[in-house]
């Protein structure tokens, strides 16, 4: 991360100086606001947690298969 003060980072986001980072931040904010307009905050939090859990389990399965195919002893992928 940058060593700039947080106010300068926010100004950089608002003025789109780093378009990729600004796009991700504002896209995620827009998606969150649209989700909250349709569903309750409990449902949105539950769906976000479910998506995060799905991604971590998929990553764990992927690393396990990769380890089995390569016959390596890397250990646990989250260590």
From TrEMBL:
<dbReference type="InterPro" id="IPR003388">
    <property type="entry name" value="Reticulon"/>
</dbReference>
<protein>
    <recommendedName>
        <fullName>Reticulon</fullName>
    </recommendedName>
</protein>
<keyword id="KW-0812">Transmembrane</keyword>
<dbReference type="Pfam" id="PF02453">
    <property type="entry name" value="Reticulon"/>
</dbReference>
<feature type="domain" description="Reticulon">
    <location>
        <begin position="10"/>
        <end position="79"/>
    </location>
</feature>
<dbReference type="GO" id="GO:0071787">
    <property type="term" value="P:endoplasmic reticulum tubular network formation"/>
</dbReference>
<dbReference type="GO" id="GO:0007420">
    <property type="term" value="P:brain development"/>
</dbReference>
<dbReference type="GO" id="GO:0030182">
    <property type="term" value="P:neuron differentiation"/>
</dbReference>
<keyword id="KW-0472">Membrane</keyword>
<dbReference type="InterPro" id="IPR046964">
    <property type="entry name" value="RTN1-4"/>
</dbReference>
<dbReference type="GO" id="GO:0014069">
    <property type="term" value="C:postsynaptic density"/>
</dbReference>
<dbReference type="GO" id="GO:0005789">
    <property type="term" value="C:endoplasmic reticulum membrane"/>
</dbReference>
<feature type="transmembrane region" description="Helical">
    <location>
        <begin position="24"/>
        <end position="53"/>
    </location>
</feature>
<dbReference type="GO" id="GO:0043005">
    <property type="term" value="C:neuron projection"/>
</dbReference>
<keyword id="KW-0256">Endoplasmic reticulum</keyword>
<keyword id="KW-1133">Transmembrane helix</keyword>
């Amino acid at each position: 991360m940058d060593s700039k003060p947080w106010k300068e980072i926010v100004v950089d986001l608002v003025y789109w100086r780093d378009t990729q980072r600004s796009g991700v931040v504002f896209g995620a904010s827009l998606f969150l606001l649209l989700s909250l307009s349709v569903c309750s905050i409990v449902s949105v939090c539950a769906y976000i947690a479910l998506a995060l859990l799905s991604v971590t389990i998929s990553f764990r399965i992927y690393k396990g298969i990769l380890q089995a195919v390569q016959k390596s002893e890397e250990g646990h992928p989250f260590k």
